[in-house]
Specification:
The structure holds two protein chains of two kinds. Helices cover 26% and strands 27% of the residues of chain A. Chain A is α+β, with helices and mostly antiparallel strands. Chain A has two domains: 171 residues, 3-Layer(bba) Sandwich (FAD/NAD(P)-binding domain); 135 residues, 2-Layer Sandwich (D-Amino Acid Oxidase, Chain A, domain 2), CATH 3.30.9.10. The chains are: A alpha+beta, B alpha/beta.
């Protein structure tokens, strides 16, 4: 038997962006039904590296990342539960003089967006992190970047949305959605939802959702390969990335060291992913170049997840080009965790005011020439 | 061990991952791999360790560890030893310790004696060492020892290590014993990480309250190239494991189109059928002591690796809306440590089901993730 629901806004996809949108929309007085095929935050939002990082982002993302960082500052209080946000600082490491030149160039651009980066020479890096491997010649430090626990953020947004009156339905996979007069009709196996607005935050499945409305969205899979050690005494006091982005490392308060790098395996339907052994072993070896002290540390788990990636590696955020009242936010290309909270606010602005205070032009869904192919399967950069 | 002609025997080899017809190996020489066309998984079982007050004190061992210390090294786990729990190992270890002259201060069985008497005919259908050992040690050889059945409210006490044991007998009388070591296990659990990584279908066994990979009597799993034998596919003891291994090998030959002796196959099938009755009796004689988990106090540590208490799990189950055990893991870190939930995962599931008032099988099981045992960070693969 089909249950019928009606709401101002239907949200497809319960990752951080979708759940944060549900919160912001409820605060704006809109009624919300959110449909999630699994559990909220169990996809890319919940299994990522946990980086809360502005440094290194595409310039178009920096205004959004700046705004999101302000939300992160008080996010635990806002959500009513601890999301383990720690502004440890993020150090992007240079392994050559040309890397260093790239960091210097980036720091100048970032300053125009109000993001202050501190450039460190080889000695300054080793004064702070004396264990640093010999290949590192310098770094750029963003003191206000850091990390949080990705497993708890989206579920906390979902619970807050529920407390605010949003109708969050988990284990409800959307089978089809279509325009019906001035409204949308969205079907799952058990539900028929009628809404005025439709928000597409469906992650790797967002291209399919867009396709239901004749919208071409070249979303490809990005499957980061990640590794975590048993708890060790605290010594990796900064989150680390490198120019070229092929490895990223951080140590959580509990002591576990998390290493990411390379690309995992995904099935044909992109519903199931696995780490790839060569990628894990290569990731370990590359991490040892930066953090030699990790040699012999015991790895207790490896994992992956599947995010959507756009051809230019920045997301789609904004109104549909084909369908009124359809709003997209997807294709975060493996680095959406930091942006998640602000995406919720931006989506609510678009729904309630028809525009956002953040510059969204670079994220238009129709920016790709027709027939643009998705990128091949890849890992992520930090 | 004598090498069999044509068998590539590789001791001291950890299989830490299984993916797409390939095993990932760790030996003293480092990482390696082994491809396969067909695979027999004979992963065995481990002790069922349940939390009780004091179970993390130095001096508390599993019965399996007590037996290994005795058999492999000829030492006792203490000078004054209490052996407690449930399952076939309890009378066996008690018999071995007592016979060797160790001081066994008490043998405390958490299951009622009646459960074993009821199953005696079934246990005696197989005139194997295992069956005889079980029954006769339980019945006769333990005479002269301080044996109690149906005990509850177990509690190990001691300032820095075990100094004594408290319990309540079946009549409700409190006892306190001085001892310096405790062997405690509550049955055996199949090691199922590799079948899980292989993608085998699992079913829930209600008497033992365990998820097991599905296997036909011939050892065929739900995955065509994967075969199962021994305690890893269901607790049956050494004799049954040998029969299952032989039968699974014949199934491999049959499925490969190679000739097998029909008489041998028929003989094994008959023997396995006889053993099945014994196994059912064994399960019924040593049911999972689920009632002990009703007694676990909120401040008791359930997950030793991550220091997660029963209270933290109950709070998360209640306040954070975890419908299944993988979400409970994401929210609380239970099962995220060195053992990856092999010890605590099902206890967490039991507590979750109780807290939510739902059947244990509805909260699922922790998904296996590679490596199934810790592996070191090593270089040389970049």
């Amino acid at each position: 038997m089909t249950e019928r629901l009606t709401a101002d806004v239907a949200v497809v996809g319960g990752g951080t962006a979708g759940c944060a949108a549900a919160v912001a929309l409820r605060k704006a007085g809109m009624s919300v039904v959110l449909l999630e095929k699994g559990l909220c935050g169990a996809g890319a939002s919940g299994v990522n590296f946990g980086g809360v990082r502005q440094q290194g982002r595409h310039m178009a993302e920096l205004p959004l990342a700046r705004r999101s960082r302000a939300i992160w500052q008080n996010l635990s209080a806002f959500l009513g539960e601890d999301v383990e946000f720690e502004p440890t600082g993020h150090m992007k490491l240079a392994r050559s003089e040309s890397d260093m030149a790239e960091l210097e160039r980036y720091a100048r651009y970032a300053a125009e967006h109000g993001l202050k980066l501190e450039l460190l020479g080889a000695n300054a890096v080793r004064t702070e992190l004396p264990w640093m491997g010999p290949k590192v010649v310098g770094a750029s430090l963003c003191a206000e970047d850091g990390a949080a626990n990705p497993r708890v953020v989206a579920p906390a947004f979902a619970r807050l949305a529920r407390r605010l009156g949003a109708d969050i339905r988990e284990k409800e996979e959307v089978l089809e959605a279509a325009r019906a007069g001035d409204a949308f009709e969205i079907r799952t196996a058990t539900l028929l939802v009628t809404s005025t607005f439709l928000i597409n935050t469906a992650g790797i499945a967002a291209g399919k959702v867009a396709g239901w409305f004749g919208e071409e969205a070249p979303v490809g899979p990005v499957i980061p390969n990640m590794i975590v050690t048993e708890p060790l005494p605290m010594f990796v006091t900064r989150a680390l990335g490198v120019c070229g982005g092929d490895i990223y490392v951080r140590q959580v308060a509990r002591g576990n060291v998390i290493m990411g790098g390379g690309c995992g395996w995904g099935d044909a339907d992109l519903t199931y992913s696995r780490p790839i052994t060569e990628q894990s072993l290569t990731g370990m070896a590359k991490t040892l170049d930066l953090v030699p002290a990790l040699k012999g540390a015991q790895v207790i788990r490896t994992w992956t997840g599947i995010d959507g990636q756009m051809p230019d590696r920045i997301p789609v955020i904004g109104f549909s080009a084909t369908t009124p009242n359809l709003v997209h936010a997807f294709g975060f290309s493996g680095h959406g965790f930091q942006l998640g909270p602000v995406i919720g606010e931006i989506l609510a602005e678009l729904v309630t005011q028809g525009r956002s205070t953040s510059p969204l032009a670079p994220f238009a869904v129709d920016r790709f020439p027709p027939g643009t192919a998705p990128l091949p399967l890849a890992g992520v950069e930090h | 061990m004598t090498a069999l002609a044509g068998v590539d025997y590789r001791p001291r080899t950890l299989v830490w991952n299984l993916f797409q017809n390939r095993l990932d190996l760790l030996t003293r020489q480092g990482y390696g791999e082994q491809r396969f066309d067909r695979l027999i998984l004979a992963t065995g079982a481990m002790d069922e360790a349940l939390p009780f007050p004091g179970w993390t004190l130095p001096g508390v061992f599993t019965l399996g560890a007590a037996q290994i210390a005795f058999k492999a090294q000829g030492v006792s786990i203490g000078r004054r030893v209490a052996l407690v729990g449930a399952g076939p190992l309890l009378p066996l270890v008690a018999h071995q310790y007592a016979t060797a002259g160790a001081e066994v201060v008490a043998v405390l069985d958490t299951t009622p004696f009646l459960a074993k008497v009821r199953q005696a005919p079934g246990l005696l259908t197989e005139s194997t060492t295992f069956a005889k050992g079980l029954w006769y040690t339980a019945r006769n050889k333990l005479r002269g020892l301080n044996v109690h059945y149906g005990v509850r409210a177990l509690s190990a006490e001691g300032a820095r290590r075990v100094e004594g044991l408290l319990f309540r007998d079946s009549a409700g009388k409190e006892h306190r014993l001085a001892c310096d070591a405790i062997g405690a296990s509550f049955g055996l659990r199949s090691e199922t990480q590799l079948p899980d990584l292989a993608g085998c279908s699992f079913t829930f066994e209600p008497v033992e309250r365990q998820w097991r990979p599905q296997a036909t009597p011939e050892g065929r799993s739900s995955v065509p190239e994967i075969y199962l034998a021994g305690d890893g596919a269901g607790i049956g003891g050494a004799d049954m494991a040998e029969l299952q291994g032989r039968r699974a090998a014949l199934a491999v030959l049959e499925d490969s189109g190679l000739p097998v002796h029909a008489a041998e196959t028929a003989h094994l099938d008959r023997a396995l059928k006889r053993q099945a009755g014994f196994r059912r009796a064994l399960e019924a004689a040593y049911p999972f002591p689920a009632h002990l988990l009703d007694d676990v106090a909120d401040d008791e540590i359930v997950c030793r690796c991550e220091g997660v208490t029963a209270g933290a799990l109950r709070r998360a189950a209640r306040d954070k809306d975890a419908p299944e055990v993988n979400r409970l893991k994401a929210l609380t870190r239970v099962g995220m440590g060195r053992c990856q939930g092999r010890v605590c995962g099902h206890v967490a599931a039991e507590l979750l089901a109780r807290a939510r008032g739902c059947p244990i099988e509805s909260v699922g099981r922790l998904r296996a993730q590679p490596p199934i045992k810790p592996i070191p960070v090593l270089g040389g693969h970049a």
